[in-house]
Amino acid sequence: MPGTDFLRAGFIFAGLFVLASSTAANAETQKNFTVSAVIATGCSIATNAGGRWGDINLGTVGGLASGTVEADLLNGVATGIQLDCTPGTSVSVSADTGDHAVAGVRQLAHSTVGSSLIAYQLFANGGTTPWTTQTMGLSFPVGTSHLQLPVRAKATLAAPMRGGAYSDTVRVTVTW
């Protein structure tokens, strides 16, 4: 009979629709999902406006002065290298001998006459032994994330000295 196939197809389609509707009504309404995070071990070191970890300014002295001048590393208003590390991190800090060292002794060099030098030493973390190139260990125990590493420079002046600006650049390396 013509149209029977159409009617039969309609019933099959309606049956599938009812079957699909009843499956949706029995769908699961509760499932689990996982939430996780990884806390990275690392450090952040504060810089000053010049993008450095700080500066040591031994001041202005007369060309006939002698003796010792000293000053602390300043980073803005804070003293020393400012380290913020993940609690539980162990850190190593080392420094090179600077750009003008002579026989391993750091030297401030005159800005235009590089042969005019003033010897100086660095002292770190309140130590009384000069900080040369040895590595210093720091730790951030659980509950601690900020440390200040004080650095002090002492220069020995021997009169007479050439007038002008003297400087050196020391590279400090922090690893964790």
Description:
This protein is mainly beta. The chain is 12% helix and 32% strand. It has 1 helix and 13 strands; from the N terminus they run αβββββββββββββ. 14% of the residues are buried.
Cα-atom radius of gyration: 35 Å
What oligomeric state is this? single chain
Distance between the termini: 86 Å
Strands of the biggest beta sheet: in what spatial order? 2-11-8-7-12
Anisotropy-based shape = elongated
* Major sheet size, sense and barrel closure: 5 strands, antiparallel
Q: What is the overall pLDDT average? A: 88
* Total strands: 13
Q: What are the segments in which pLDDT stays under 50 over at least 5 consecutive residues?
A: 9-20
Task: Output the structural class.
Answer: mainly beta
Order of helices and strands: HEEEEEEEEEEEEE
Q: How many helix segments?
A: 1
Task: Tell me what portion of residues adopts beta-strand conformation.
Answer: 25-35%
Residues in helices, as a percent range: 10-25%
Keywords:
three-stranded antiparallel sheet, elongated, 176 residues, five-stranded antiparallel sheet, mainly beta, 1 helix
Concise account of the structure shown:
By secondary structure, this protein is mainly beta. The protein is 12% helix and 32% strand.
Fold blueprint:
Elements: H1 4-25, E1 43-45, E2 67-72, E3 74-75, E4 78-79, E5 81-85, E6 90-95, E7 107-110, E8 117-124, E9 136-139, E10 146-149, E11 151-157, E12 166-167, E13 172-175
Antiparallel strand pairs: 1-5, 2-11, 3-4, 5-10, 6-9, 6-13, 7-8, 7-12, 8-11
